[in-house]
Amino acid sequence: MIKIKENIDLTPFNTFRLKQAAEFFVIVKNVQDLRAAIIWAKENKQPIFILGGGSNILISQKIKGLVIKNEIKGMEIIDKNDDYALVEGKGGESWTKFVNFTVNQGLYGLENLFLIYGTVGAAPIQNIGAYGVELKDVFYHLKAINLKTGHEKIFSAADCLFAYRDSIFKNKLKGKYFIYSVVVKLSRKPNFKLTYAPLKTELAKRKITEPCLRDIVNVITDIRNSKLPNPGVLPNAGSYFKNIEISERKFKSLLKKYPEMPYFQSDNKKIKIPSGWLIEQAGFKGKRFGKVSMYEKQALILVNHGGAQAKDILALAEKVKKAVNKKFGVDLVEEVRVI
Ligand code: EPU
User: Fold this and answer.
1) Domain 5-70 class in CATH
2) 96 lines ligand 1 (CB under 6 A)
């Protein structure tokens, strides 16, 4: 039996800790609950909004309709051979617990993605990534439920149209599916991705030449803790903007002016520039505007020092965008989903 509640404060359910309400709210713990919630929304002619860990959203106003909080949990190895294992995580499971489970099983592939806030079900929506690995690298398929028809559909990696912090679920199918579970294909033999410079440097510093899975998890934990604010202490939603991707031509003209500018080659022949660097150069790193600032150790992260409202966050983001555009002639794009 599900219990639909009315006018629920969403402060505990978003890591920016913004005080906004849901018109209707329900927590689903299994697929029967979910189906009942879908039927309720249909009967009451209410739109549906799916909430995961609330770690990548900025709620700027009351959410109309029914907010469904996904708490369908569980994870298991569903198949394996000598080389690979397929591991399924239910959508409402904590991403970090899921990664920890795979590491404990001695499976390789997700270790670089340890300690990313949010849920398993949200991970494919923006193709989460860190330290040289993206979800798409190990993704096998996902099961999703159509919020209109209630039908289940399996999406292969190709169906998901994964790109840098992007997928079909942010575009054509935005808000149309409930991601019930995600299956990843992990290696049973070591195949570490250690190309990301800070990871390599940190392992060398610790004199670890043949790392095990736990070594990587420990190093990732330390790197993240040294740069990224814990939303439990300093509310934030991770990177506020994406790193920008620019054409070769634009890149060359910028590099002439800023020879020290860091950059990476992107998958799609474009050049990626860390937006954190652009924001720092524009003078916003650690600079506080009332209750908000761009984090002092990582300028890409917008933090709420307590009591900020969505309008404070949006105003700072706008200031940053304007300043970066003025200085570099490029446009920052939000990674955070503004609702
Ligand atoms: N940099 C600066 N100043 C800053 C921040 C960064 O100059 O204040 C420059 C430095 O040159 C640094 C480079 O940017 O070497 C890259 O910085 P960092 O390694 O911290 O990573 P990032 O590009 O800023 C991305 C992801 C993070 C992910 C890290 C590690 C995006 C939008 N963000 O950040 O993901 O953890 O790489 O792989 O792609 C998130 O998506 O919420 C997130 C935290």
Assistant:
1) alpha beta
2) no
